[in-house]
Amino acid sequence: MTDPTPTPGIHHVTCIASDPQRTVDFWIETLGLRLVKRSINQDDPETYHFFFADAEGTPGTSMTFFPWEDLTRGTVGSGQVSRTAFRVPEGSLDYWEDRFDEYGVDYDDRVERFGETVLPFRDPDGLPVELVEVEIPEDDPTVPWTEFVPEDSAIRGFHSVTLWLADPAPTADLLRTMGFAEVGTEQAQGDRPGDERTRFAATGPVGTYVDVLPTIESGRQGHGTVHHVAFQTPTDEDQQAMREAVQSAGLRPTQQIDRHWFRSVYFREFGGVLFELATSDPGYTDDEPLEELGERLVLPGKFEGQREQIEAGLTDVTVPRAEQAEADD
Fold it and tell me: Which CATH superfamily is domain 10-328 in?
């Protein structure tokens, strides 16, 4: 078997929320991401699936949520993505601290990590999130959405995820199989101080890093935790090769599943974190024009025939608009 094409990095991260409207308000108005798809959980069609991303839904920018209202609050622990970090332009963290003060966001002091400045904070469900200052190159593939946040401060896709694992070694080997290269270790700051953080880098410019930290703390999935992290396998051929490599490593990946905007393969890595492999095509504009992304409830495939029943079971949500927010001030 030949080695698979290395993954360019993270494709999306999917999390569990509680309140649909509060989730929409926070990720659009407070953080300035665009709602690029308003849909349903295809495995649980009575639940929304929200996709927040850059202006065009570029691979490597989508933070997505299942608002399971009946679940309890989760606990971050071993076998989970413990932190999700986004890139922001150099010099913008002062803006973000001022914004977090204005909107009442719970945030911590900045920390330095691998030579970069990190601002940790939490969403309304307690989900641990971070902003990392980086230099955004002229040819960066992300397209900032600027309805609520100015371009010089706007979130520009993923920086990294941090995995908490009881035994990091098998996962480190898996990341190497997937095309990540180990680029450094340092003592952890901010979370689990004193433990060693190991960083792995993918080949692409967005969603480049996976950090691994050891922990024996137990976790529980629920509100404020990550459900899974997806990695880019841009083509079907890339995905199949990666699937075979993962299977050869001793894991049990699913067959390819059509998720309408990308095709997916899922597996639990050695430490218990749910990984997904996701293609780049067909993308979020496959069923909506770019300028209308997120404006309506999209029901893929067979679910369109159940629209009346599905809509009746979903909580109404209102998407924030900048002009309305200004009028309310």
Answer: 2,3-Dihydroxybiphenyl 1,2-Dioxygenase, domain 1 (3.10.180.10)
